[in-house]
Amino acid sequence: MVIFAASLFSAALAFVVAYFAARTLGPESYGRLATANAIVVVIVGLTDFGVSTALVRFTSEHLNDKPRVAPYFQGALRLQLLVVLVILAIVPFTPRLAEFLGGPEMRLPLYIGLISSLFLSLGTYTNALLQTYQRFKVIASLNAGLSTLRTVLYLSLVLTSALTLLNALVANLVVAVLTLAVGMYLRPRIGVRSSWLEQKLALKEMYRFGKWLVVSYALNAVLSRLDLVMLAHLRPASEVGHYAVALQLAMFMPLLLSSLTTVLVPKVSALPDSEVRSYLRNTLFGAAAVAAVLIPLVLLAGPVIEFVFGDKYAGAVQPFQLIMGSFILTLFINPPTLLFYKWNKPKILTYMNVITATTLVVLMFVLTQRFGAVGAAWALVINAAFSGCVFAVLLRYQLERVESVAS
């Protein structure tokens, strides 16, 4: 509950930052800022490797046995330091990446973004330690505090008429540096050194456990910002700005879906087979009720966006409506798919993630190239509908198998 409250608070502040940045910078510069931020999110997501989940799995029950857990924590840190070297190796290729993402104007945003990703990637390690030791209040306070700092920096730039693309990027960099610094200061101390051989064995064990997680984390990292990256490559920066505003307005939906998953996972795990169909009926009815509340918001998007962000963001209206449509479809899909964890079939979800990821890449490329921001949003809707159909077939097949065994 504390983590959710902090996430909700941070999301609200992120909207404030987006509001002032979008209105002040305009669609073109805001599009470049959003592209740089998207690259940071992808890099940090790709370099997570499911470390926090693996650390919880292998150390949470033995935290008092420091010699036993030290190789896992120190091996994970060594892995994250290696990741920093990999990110540094990308820096010389920044000019080429800039050409791919819109031209020479993207060089400086990408340079600053790559530096930010160094600190944020290392910050995932400190967050993993705090999560393993169940310091959830510390995590919540840290996230809320850093979000507040970022908002204060942006507001200060707005009030002094100094909010430019460069200054916005520097503000993000300052927050990234402090994320690592404060996290390292607050991290639990182990106080025991392990040998390289012990760390190597610990890393191998975590890899064997988390190899499927690595695939899922990598796919999620890429897919989470694929639309913005594809838009930046294929369309003008102003269209990226329109789409980024639409995406920011819809960001409360991932929070809703994440919270719903957090609540349902333990219930689904303990669900008797005889109550599975009842669970499906209830979750689908609940999704329909939420959708009925959200549809008026979708229909009124035009006046709301133009009032909040101004006439120059009228191009964000249709993308927002379509993005919300994809999230509403996902609201019907996610709760039923949790049953695959109950049936101990996580590989099915991973395979499906690969299939839908491939489909989304193709849809994004074809539709974005032809229809711009609207095409990118349509790709999300079509992919969500396709995923729902495939999951429905797999779910029905697995449910019939379970019921036939039970009878």
From TrEMBL:
InterPro entries (UniProt xref): Poly_Biosynth_Transport (IPR050833), Polysacc_synth (IPR002797)
TM spans (from-to): 34-58, 79-98, 110-130, 142-159, 165-186, 206-223, 243-265, 285-309, 321-341, 348-367, 373-395
Pfam families reported in the protein's UniProt record: Polysacc_synt
Membrane topology: Multi-pass membrane protein
Keywords annotated in UniProt: Cell membrane, Membrane, Transmembrane, Transmembrane helix
Location(s), subcellular: Cell membrane
Gene Ontology cellular-component annotations: plasma membrane
Keyword Kinase: no
Protein name in UniProt: Membrane protein involved in the export of O-antigen and teichoic acid
